[in-house]
C-alpha cells in the first residue's frame, strides 16, 4: 500500500497526510540524490550548535526548507542547521522541526545516514514538549531508502521502490520490553563515569549484541526493526547535557519509540515530557526496550 493511502486509511488529518505522505517523502528523495552526487567537503560554516557544516548539511537543509515552503501549510520551521526559526505562511497549521542530515560525517565512509522530522501544531515551540508533536519520522539512507513514521497511531516502515513510490513494508513496529542489543553512544563518558562504565559492562556480561554505527538514525532504526535494544548517548563533563538535540533528534525518536511500545528518557525523566526552553537545547537520551531503559536509569543513579 502506498504511504499516502495508508495514512488516509489510518484517519490522519488531510493536510498532515499530505505533509507526511508526499512533501517529506519528496524532500528525502532529493536529499538521497544529493548524497549520491556530493562528496563530504566542508561548507566552511558552523551550525547553531557550533559544529562544522558539510556542504551536504547545507544543501540538505535547503532542500527541506524549499519543499516545506512550496507546500505552503507550514507557519514556521526550525532546523539543526539554522540558528533561528524560518518563517513560512502566517496562519498555516504546522510547525516543522528537522535535522536534515544526521550523521553527515559518515557519508564519506559510506555508512548509513538519515534525516529526522518532528511536526508540531503551529505556534511557539518554547514551553511545548515532545508530547505535543502531531507526528515524527526519519529517513534511512542505507542499502535502501526507508521512511519510519508515526502520526501517533503506531510506528510503521515504508520503502522507496523502483517507480519512486514509498510502500508500506512493516506495520505497527513493536519494541519488546527486554533488550537483546545495545548501541552505547558517547563511550568516552564511560572513561569518567563509573556508573556508565558499569552499565556498558553489564550489557556485555548479559550477552547483548553490539549494534552501533555512530549514526543515531540507523542505530535506532535497528532497534525498531529488530524489535529490541537500547540506544544511549549520555552527557559527561565536557558536555553535561550530551550532544544530541531535543527538538531535532531526541523528541522525534522518542515519539517513534513510544508509539512502538518502547520508551525514552534523559536517563531519569521521560523525554517526551521535557519542556522545550530553547531551539537547540541538548539532552542525554536512553531509548528502546522499556525494561532496559528503566534499568539504565537506576544504574546511572548509582553514579
Ligand atoms: P549530526 O551529524 O546531525 O551532527 O549528528 C550525528 C549524531 C548522531 O547521529 C550520533 O548518534 C552522534 O552524532 C555520534 O556522536 P559522536 O560523534 O560524539 O560519537
Ligand atoms: Mn543530528
Ligand atoms: Mn545533522
Task: Describe this entry's structure for a reader.
- Helix 1 packs antiparallel against helix 2 (14-37) and helix 4 packs antiparallel against helix 7 (290-301).
- Helices cover 32% and strands 24% of the residues.
- It is built from seven helices and 15 strands.
- The strands form three sheets. An eight-stranded mixed beta sheet has the order 4-3-5-6-7-8-9-10, with helices on both faces.
- With 303 residues, the chain is α+β, with helices and mostly antiparallel strands.
- It has helices at 3-9, 14-37, 55-71, 194-205, 216-226, 246-259, 290-301; strands at residues 42-46, 52-54, 74-79, 86-87, 94-102, 113-121, 135-141, 145-150, 156-160, 166-170, 181-184, 209-210, 230-233, 263-265, 285-288.
- The mean pLDDT is 96.
- Bound molecules: 2,5-anhydro-1,6-di-O-phosphono-D-glucitol and manganese (II) ion (MN) (2 copies).
- The site of one manganese (II) ion (MN) has 4 residues, from strand 5.
Amino acid at each position: 500500500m502506498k504511504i499516502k493511502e495508508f495514512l488516509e486509511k489510518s484517519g490522519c488529518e488531510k493536510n498532515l497526510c499530505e505533509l507526511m505522505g508526499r512533501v517529506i517523502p519528496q524532500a528525502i528523495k532529493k536529499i538521497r540524490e544529493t548524497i549520491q552526487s556530493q562528496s563530504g567537503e566542508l561548507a566552511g560554516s558552523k551550525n547553531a550548535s557550533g559544529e562544522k557544516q558539510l556542504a551536504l548539511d547545507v544543501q540538505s537543509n535547503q532542500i527541506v526548507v524549499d519543499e516545506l515552503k512550496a507546500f505552503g501549510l507550514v507557519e514556521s520551521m526550525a532546523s539543526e542547521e539554522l540558528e533561528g526559526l524560518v518563517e513560512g505562511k502566517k496562519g498555516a497549521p504546522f510547525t516543522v522541526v528537522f535535522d536534515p542530515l544526521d550523521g553527515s560525517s559518515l557519508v564519506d565512509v559510506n555508512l548509513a545516514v538519515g534525516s529526522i522530522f518532528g511536526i508540531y501544531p503551529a505556534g511557539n515551540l518554547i514551553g511545548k514538549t515532545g508530547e505535543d508533536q502531531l507526528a515524527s519520522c526519519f529517513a534511512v539512507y542505507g542499502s535502501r531508502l526507508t521512511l519510519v513514521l508515526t502520526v501517533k497511531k503506531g510506528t510503521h516502515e515504508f520503502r522507496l521502490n523502483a517507480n519512486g513510490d514509498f510502500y508500506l513494508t512493516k506495520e505497527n513496529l513493536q519494541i519488546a520490553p527486554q533488550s537483546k542489543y545495545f548501541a552505547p553512544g558517547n563511550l568516552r563518558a564511560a572513561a569518567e563515569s563509573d556508573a556508565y562504565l558499569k552499565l556498558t559492562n553489564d550489557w556485555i556480561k548479559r550477552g547483548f549484541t553490539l549494534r552501533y554505527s555512530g549514526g543515531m538514525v540507523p542505530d535506532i532504526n535497528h532497534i525498531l526493526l529488530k524489535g529490541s535494544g537500547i540506544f544511549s548517548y549520555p552527557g559527561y563533563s565536557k558536555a553535561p547535557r550530551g550532544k544530541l538535540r531535543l527538538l531535532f533528534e531526541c523528541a522525534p525518536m522518542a515519539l517513534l519509540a513510544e508509539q512502538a511500545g518502547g520508551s525514552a528518557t534523559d536517563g531519569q525523566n521521560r523525554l517526551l515530557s521535557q519542556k522545550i526552553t530553547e531551539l537547540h537545547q541538548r539532552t542525554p537520551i536512553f531509548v528502546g526496550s522499556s525494561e532496559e531503559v528503566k534499568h539504565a536509569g537506576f544504574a546511572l543513579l548509582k553514579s
